[in-house]
Write a structure and sequence with these properties.
alpha/beta; nine-stranded mixed sheet; two-stranded antiparallel ribbon; 18 helices; 15% strand
Length: 458
């Protein structure tokens, strides 16, 4: 296996691009990453393209990478399409790494592009079901009933915020309400004909009402288990969200760039207890890319000062396990640490998959930064803020940087490469030399269906 380096990264600002198509977003990312790497389109010898929703939205299945890249003059080379739920971008990165590490190519492109925003928000959220075992959806719903919250546990302010939101929806114009009813009906029929009407009715009854991703209910279930097992509090989860919102104020590429206090997060609209809206990643559009090369190319181009070495690249899949068995993130990170010859204490900065604030809290434990059950305590102490013991998600994470599914893993690589180069500006982590990225995707049973862990060094 050869040493592999990242010599180019780029990402668009994540947000809402209703009038732009995926090939346009991809073009922006490719143009930027080629400029950053100092190479041309014809230098690219292989490409890995990550996307999850283009098929569902626009019926563009099967050859997405070829459709996105040919207009840019990138064709004729091996182009591999990656669909691996939220881990798609990091899986594309892993594929490009293998191409170079095995000597199949000297220069490989990893690209992720996604459009999630749509006027039919019910259809958008229903689309997330494709990241679960659709045939076992009924069983998943039954499992989520466990550790159901006691109504007395839910703070009155969050109940009030939820009622206020419902009133705001009812105050919409007649035209907008009719449009919503049509979208709901259309989505209900689409899911009913595909999954079965009894299953869809069951999903709605348990709380997945189409106004949020069903993954929020999965994360809320995991959070409630953690709270009951270890004494983690809702305030500690809110501290993670507040920290990431603060980090995002220093990231011009972030979808959200506003600060929000722990108190205001706790007062926000309840999504699925204990998660309020501010604790959940927004939907969004965007693209991100990286160029990976061999050591020989680094020397030939004279870019050693900005090249970032990939010390470990691991792709793992979930397995059938009981809740208390070893988690996929523990297994994947242990392989990565061994591959890199490092341990959790060697990591200076990391980006983890925080589709919810609880997701980050749990991963800081699984990755070995804190003992099991102590992630919340350390988050509340500020240990994961820039300047703390182990800065986590200095980009703002999925919570604030945004989460265009196929691009998220590569956005993590963009942030960590920027940090290791010392080019992160106000959010720069002092002395950053070793970085870790963890990116999970989908869910089957008690853990993610797929996960990548990458370790990079200056």
């Amino acid at each position: 296996m050869r040493d592999v380096y990242v010599i180019g990264v780029h990402m668009t600002k994540f947000g809402k691009y209703l009038d732009n198509k995926i090939p346009e977003l991809a073009a922006w990312a490719v143009e930027g990453v080629l400029k950053d790497a100092g190479v041309g389109k014809k230098d690219i010898q292989s490409a890995w393209f990550a996307n999850s929703g283009w098929g569902i939205r626009n019926f563009q299945h099967c050859i997405r990478g070829q459709v996105a890249l040919r207009p840019l003059g990138i064709d004729g080379i091996p182009i591999t399409n990656v669909e691996n739920a939220c881990a798609g971008g990091s899986t594309a990165f892993h594929g490009a790494w293998k191409d170079v590490a095995l000597g199949l190519t000297d220069i490989s492109l990893a690209l992720g592009a996604e459009k999630i925003y749509d006027r039919n928000k019910f259809g958008v959220f229903a689309g997330f079901i494709s990241g679960m075992d659709a045939d076992a959806l009924s069983q998943t719903v039954d499992r989520l009933k466990e550790f159901a919250p006691d109504p007395a546990e839910i703070p009155p302010a969050q109940v009030t915020a939820a009622r206020k939101t419902r009133k705001e929806r009812k105050s919409k114009s007649l035209r907008d309400r009719l449009q919503d009813y049509w979208y709901q009906f259309y989505t209900f029929v689409l899911l009913g004909e595909t999954l079965g009407y009894d299953t869809v009715k069951k999903v709605v009854r348990v709380g997945m009402k189409g106004d949020r991703s069903p993954f929020m209910d999965v994360y809320a279930y995991a959070a409630r288990r953690h709270m009951k097992t270890y004494g983690t509090t809702q305030r500690q989860i809110a501290a993670v969200a507040a920290k990431n919102h603060w980090h995002s104020t220093m990231n011009p590429n972030a979808q959200y760039t506003f600060d929000i206090s722990i108190e205001d997060i706790l007062k926000d609209r309840l999504v699925s207890y204990p998660l309020t809206r501010s604790m959940c990643a927004p939907i969004g559009d965007g693209a991100a890319a990286a160029i990976l090369v061999s050591e020989e190319v680094v020397k030939r181009l004279g870019v050693s000062s900005r090249a970032i070495k990939i010390r470990a690249s691991v792709l793992a899949s979930g397995r059938e396990r009981e809740w208390d068995d070893i988690d996929i993130a523990v297994r994947a990170s242990q392989i990565a640490y061994k591959q890199a010859g490092l341990g959790p204490r060697d990591i200076n900065v990391c980006e983890v998959h925080d589709a919810t604030a609880f997701g980050e809290l749990a991963q800081t434990e699984n990755l070995g930064f804190f003992p099991k059950g102590e992630g919340g305590v350390n988050a509340e102490r500020g240990e994961t803020k820039i300047g703390g013991k182990i800065p986590v998600n200095p980009s703002g994470g999925l919570l604030s940087r945004g989460h265009p599914i196929g691009a998220s893993g590569l956005a993590q690589i963009h942030e960590l490469t920027t940090q290791l180069r010392g080019e992160a500006g106000k959010r720069q982590v002092a002395g950053a030399r070793i970085a870790l990225a963890e990116n999970g995707g989908g869910v089957i049973g008690n853990e993610e269906a797929a996960m990548c862990v990458h370790i990079l060094s200056k």
